[in-house]
Design a protein that fits this description.
By secondary structure, the protein is α+β, with helices and mostly antiparallel strands. It has one domain: Maf protein (Alpha-Beta Complex). The protein is 30% helix and 25% strand. The chain has 5 helices and 8 strands; from the N terminus they run E-H-E-H-E-E-H-E-E-E-E-H-H. Strands 1, 2, 3, 4, 5, 6, 7 and 8 form an 8-stranded mixed sheet that branches. The chain is globular.
């Protein structure tokens, strides 16, 4: 079994990654689970740059395959905020219930057609002696008028999927993994992982 270390402590992300990579002969661990508890400064200006920074920092400390993702929410009306600062937006320790409410308040009188937004996910895969590879995917949607659902994490309760008219926090894991930015990026990356396992 090949070991994959994910550059995150976020169990929600790890759950999604395990669901997509579940049929590969790999074992997935968070960096904390393998004792790599380090702070990595994400000072890139794009999601892709931040994913590469994390993956390449972590690969120095292991012989395993390292996967890092950087993802976030872009809201067009707010000049693509929170963007690459999604996790640190309004303060790193501010609960997402509060962040989501502040965003809803800022968009209070904004019309539906101007509430367009997307989740972006960039994934980088790094390993000693190999070239770092990336995949970037998005899911388009809009910001709802109130937070709904408890299945997701982060900004999921306020991000709605056109056609379904439900928030990503109201989707089952199966539904989410068909359409989400992270699942799409992971599926692209899965093919690259398969090549590395051959």
């Amino acid at each position: 079994m090949k070991k994959i270390i994910v550059a995150t402590q976020n169990q929600g992300k790890v759950k999604e990654i395990k669901a997509v990579l579940g049929d590969l002969p790999v074992e997935v661990y968070t960096m904390g689970e393998v004792g790599l508890d380090m702070e990595i400064e994400e000072n890139g200006t794009t999601f892709e740059a931040n994913a590469i920074i994390k993956a390449e920092a972590l690969k120095q400390h292991t012989d395993a395959i390292v996967i890092a993702d950087d993802s976030g929410l872009e809201i067009d009306y707010l000049n693509k905020e929170p963007g690459v600062y999604s996790a640190r937006y309004l303060g790193k320790d501010t609960p997402y219930t509060e962040k989501n409410q502040i965003i809803l308040d800022r968009l209070k009188d904004v019309k539906r057609e101007e509430r367009t937004a997307r989740f972006v996910c960039a994934i980088a895969m790094a390993m000693k002696g190999k070239e770092t590879q990336t995949a970037v995917e998005t899911i388009e949607g809009y910001i709802g008028y109130k937070a709904q659902g408890t299945n997701g994490f982060g900004y999921d309760p306020i991000f709605f999927v056109p056609g379904l008219e439900r928030s990503t926090a109201e989707l089952t894991m199966e539904e989410k993994n068909k359409i989400s930015h992270r699942a799409k990026a992971l599926r692209t990356m899965k093919e690259k992982i398969k090549d590395m396992l051959d």
